[in-house]
Every structure is written in structure tokens, then in C-alpha cells.
Design goal:
single chain; 8 helices; globular; binds zinc ion
Length: 188
């Protein structure tokens, strides 16, 4: 069965993913060299998604000039494609009824973005407005941004690597982050 999809979220994400029709990994991928050698790609999606997105961008360029896509490149393309399909499991902090769809990211003194599970809202205008007010009240002089709770959006931002993994695990309801649980999460 074809799994290529077009994702539309707030009109911002719209792509097709042919990799999902051709590549079916059996398990997590562990990086073989470089500064993240030994790290699992699926776990890194929770810890540093921007790193993986940049790496894929680099490999896209290099492989275009040289040879065929290698296993690592395929796996990276696969996990990034799958990540666009994952949706939040956390409830809105304001109405406590709907599933949250947005979060308020706050920029810290080092220019890195962080969020908390209290700073998530559903799509209703009232809850988005309450989320914005909560940010104004608690982070008065900080730069803030309301963004969709989606991996492709997180992967664009410089994130606070000390806290992002815990936040993403809460949002996507992963109680224990291991190569196995992370792979199963993306392989759904
Ligand atoms: Zn709500």
C-alpha cells in the first residue's frame, strides 16, 4: 500500500514523501561516525531534531553530486518524513478538553527556545489567546512565538537541548525514551 502523504498543518507543511513507499526499516539506526557516533537517530529526534534536519540537508547536497543515497541518508529521510505525521497527545492546558495543537516557545538568554507542558493549547481562538496571555504574564521581556506542536517546526528552531527532550516526550506521550520506544513511535 502506498504511504506517500501530503501533510497540511496550518497551511505551512505541504510535502510528499516518496521514501515512505520504498524504505521500510526493521529497527532503530545508530550513527556510525562523527560527533554523534553511537547515538540513535530516533532518540536524537527528541533530543536535537535541528541537528538531524541540518545533517539531512548536507547529505542531500553531497549525494546529489556523488553517488546513490546510502542507508544512513535513507533512514534520516524516513524518520524526518515519519515525524511530520506524528500528532500531539497532550491535552490543552486551558480548556482541558481538546488535544493541544500549539505551544508557546520562549527564547532564553542564550537565544535557545524552550517550552513547558503548561504552555500548550488547542486550536480554539479563546485557548490560543489564553496561551498568548500566559506568555505575556510570565515571560514579559522575552521573545516568544506560538507554533504548531509538530516536529518539522521544532526542527527549524534552535532549541534548548537541556529541556527539549522532556517536553517532546510529554507532548507525544513517551514515558521512557529508548531506541526501541522511539523507533516504535516513528514506525507507526
Ligand atoms: Zn483548549
Amino acid at each position: 500500500m502506498l504511504q506517500s502523504v501530503v501533510v497540511n498543518s496550518g497551511g505551512k507543511i505541504s510535502r510528499t514523501f516518496p521514501i515512505l513507499d520504498t524504505y521500510f526499516p526493521k529497527g532503530p539506526y545508530f550513527i556510525k561516525g562523527g560527533k554523534k557516533a553511537g547515538k540513535c537517530v530516533e532518540v536524537l529526534m527528541f533530543e536535537d531534531p535541528k541537528y538531524l534536519l541540518s545533517l539531512k540537508g548536507y547529505l542531500d547536497k553531497v549525494l546529489k553530486e556523488t553517488s546513490e543515497s546510502n542507508e544512513f541518508h535513507k533512514h534520516l529521510s524516513w524518520v524526518l518524513a515519519k515525524s511530520t505525521l506524528r500528532t500531539p497527545k497532550i491535552e490543552c492546558s486551558f480548556c482541558r478538553k481538546e488535544t493541544a495543537q500549539n505551544t508557546l516557545f520562549v527564547r532564553d538568554n542564550f537565544g535557545k527556545y524552550f517550552s513547558k507542558k503548561e504552555l500548550v493549547s488547542c486550536s480554539s481562538l479563546g485557548c490560543i489567546s489564553a496561551l498568548s496571555d500566559a506568555g505575556t504574564l510570565n515571560y514579559i521581556f522575552k521573545k516568544k512565538q506560538i507554533i504548531p506542536l509538530r516536529f518539522p517546526v521544532f526542527a527549524q528552531l534552535p532549541l534548548d537541548l537541556g529541556s527539549i527532550s522532556k517536553f517532546l516526550q510529554e507532548v507525544f506521550d513517551i514515558s521512557e525514551l529508548t531506541p526501541k520506544t522511539a523507533f516504535e513511535f516513528f514506525n507507526k
